[in-house]
Structure formats: structure tokens, C-alpha cells
Amino acid sequence: MSALKVEAEIYNFGGRLLKLSHESLVNNCSMGVNLYLPKQYYEGKTKIPVLFYLAGLTCTPANGSEKAFFQPYADKYGFAVVFPDTSPRGVKIEGDDETWSFGTGAGFYVDAVQEKWKKNYNMYSYILKELPTLLKTKYTQLDFDNKSITGHSMGGYGAIMFFLRNPNEFKSCSAFAPILNPSKTNWGIKCFGGYLGESESDKKLWEKYDPAEIISSNSYKGPVVPILIHQGVNDPFYKVKGDYDYLTPNEFLEKIKGSNYEKDVTLKFVDGFDHSYFFISSFSGEHAAHHAKYLGLLD
Ligand SMILES: N[C@@H](CCC(=O)N[C@@H](CSC=O)C(=O)NCC(=O)O)C(=O)O
């Protein structure tokens, strides 16, 4: 297993933000990841729970750690926050930087099966296995058996997908403006099609990654932990009366009807808010409290 290198250690709120790098064996490239260690870490506490924050299209580990403002809540409740990258970097595959919604910055949290991408685009295995295993070996005060997951847009889809595909792996999940039925959106069709393939049989694999399909098929057999979602009504990628909807919250609400999760998704449409980090940071406190409850951090 490759080693983690500390590139920077920045004092931030009551704890520190570490900028880390390492060689990824599943993505076959060097990866960056940011890690916020809360004040409790520096007070010597052990068994500190962990929240994963998955970012959206175009993002690096910087976006969430600079603009989502989870850190003061991490100090308040006592959890660490992991901010992974959104794709492999610098792998030079033809076509990986032609558009911001596919390739670099757009790994879509899948393990690619298409020949061109499968050596490097394995963000599913990276987030689920390689990254926690690596962090666990160095940061032994953190408890990776007590972790939750959240994310924004592509990362919101990722958070719910990881949670539903891996019962008991994450204690809770939440999302900000997630792509909820990606098989039916431009972004999802492009990324699933490119990384997983476009034939009818390939589309069977899309279903295994699509939160709306997983939840509506009742294939999730773990504990039903309420899922918290916020969606801004003025989000340009969610048009109530427009001709496109990249996020598909209403399709999701339709699909969960009759499923074992029907009553346990709280999807809050919030007037006026857009898709930006001003929206995320306005609700990160509510999401942090949600996760703190299921991580056992509330009295
Ligand atoms: N560059 C694009 C806009 C891309 C964009 O809005 N990305 C969002 C996530 S979208 C879904 O995953 C984002 O988080 N951007 C980073 C940020 O800091 O806001 C364009 O030109 O339209």
C-alpha cells in the first residue's frame, strides 16, 4: 500500500486541514485528498467518527473544504471530514478533458468497465475501499467503522448511491442538490454511457449505480436510516417549469413510492437558493447535526 504524504497542514477553526497526496493503486495515478481533523483530535481523543464529503462535477478536494463550512460543526460534534477528489488526474486519456461533465473532474463515482477508462477511472473502489483503508493506517485516532457520507450534485448522487449499495458501511447519508435518477439525465447518460457502456446489457449496470433504481427496486436491505436532502428551487440545473432537469428530485420522489424508503426521505425544497456553495454552506449545519445523531455524537 502506498504512503500518504502531508503536503500542507493549515490551522482551521479549532482543528487543522491537511492537504494529502498518495499514489492510488486502483486509479493508477497520484491523487489528492483533504482531511479536516477536529479539535478533539488534537485533545487526544480516540474513536473519532468520520464524515465523507463527495464534491460535484469540476471539483477538487479544495471546493468542499474551502466553501462548504463543515469544519465548525465538525468541532462542535467531534467528527473528522474527508474531502476526496472527483476523478483521477493527469492520466492523459484522449477525450478526458474535452468537457467539464465527463473525464477529469467527473469520475461519477463508478468503476469503469470500458477499455479506454477502466485502468484509471475507478472512483467507486477508491472511495469505498482504497481511501478509507489508507487513511485508517495513518490516522489511528479516527474510527472508519463509524462513518457517514454526504455530497453535492454528482457527489450527492454518489453519497446516496454508496449508502444504498453498501448496507451497514455508512451510518447515515445526506445530499445537497443530488442527481437522483442519473440514468435519466444528460450528465448521467454521458458518464454512465462513457464509463460503463451504452448497450442494453450495459444499462443493467447503470441501474446498480442509480439511487432511484436501487431504492425503487427495494434491493437495499440494510437499516432504514432517514436520508436528508436539500434542493434549491432557484438552482439552474433544476428547472421547475423549464425544459430540462439535470437533478431529477421529482422523478426520485415518484420512484420511491411503494418502496421501503417511501417515508424516510426528507427532501426539502428551499426557495431562492441556487446550486452554489452559498446554498451548501447555508445548510451544512443541518446536515452535520443529522450525521452527528447517527454517528452517536448527540447526548
Ligand atoms: N463549469 C460549469 C459549472 C459546473 C458546476 O456548476 N459544478 C458544480 C457541481 S455541478 C454537479 O455536479 C460545482 O460544485 N462547481 C464548483 C463550485 O465551487 O461551485 C459551467 O461552466 O457551467
From TrEMBL:
<dbReference type="InterPro" id="IPR000801">
    <property type="entry name" value="Esterase-like"/>
</dbReference>
<keyword id="KW-0719">Serine esterase</keyword>
<dbReference type="GO" id="GO:0018738">
    <property type="term" value="F:S-formylglutathione hydrolase activity"/>
</dbReference>
<comment type="function">
    <text>Serine hydrolase involved in the detoxification of formaldehyde.</text>
</comment>
<feature type="active site" description="Charge relay system">
    <location>
        <position position="153"/>
    </location>
</feature>
<dbReference type="InterPro" id="IPR029058">
    <property type="entry name" value="AB_hydrolase_fold"/>
</dbReference>
<dbReference type="Pfam" id="PF00756">
    <property type="entry name" value="Esterase"/>
</dbReference>
<keyword id="KW-0378">Hydrolase</keyword>
<feature type="active site" description="Charge relay system">
    <location>
        <position position="275"/>
    </location>
</feature>
<dbReference type="GO" id="GO:0046294">
    <property type="term" value="P:formaldehyde catabolic process"/>
</dbReference>
<protein>
    <recommendedName>
        <fullName>S-formylglutathione hydrolase</fullName>
        <ecNumber>3.1.2.12</ecNumber>
    </recommendedName>
</protein>
<feature type="active site" description="Charge relay system">
    <location>
        <position position="235"/>
    </location>
</feature>
<comment type="similarity">
    <text>Belongs to the esterase D family.</text>
</comment>
<keyword id="KW-0963">Cytoplasm</keyword>
<dbReference type="GO" id="GO:0052689">
    <property type="term" value="F:carboxylic ester hydrolase activity"/>
</dbReference>
<dbReference type="InterPro" id="IPR014186">
    <property type="entry name" value="S-formylglutathione_hydrol"/>
</dbReference>
<dbReference type="GO" id="GO:0005829">
    <property type="term" value="C:cytosol"/>
</dbReference>
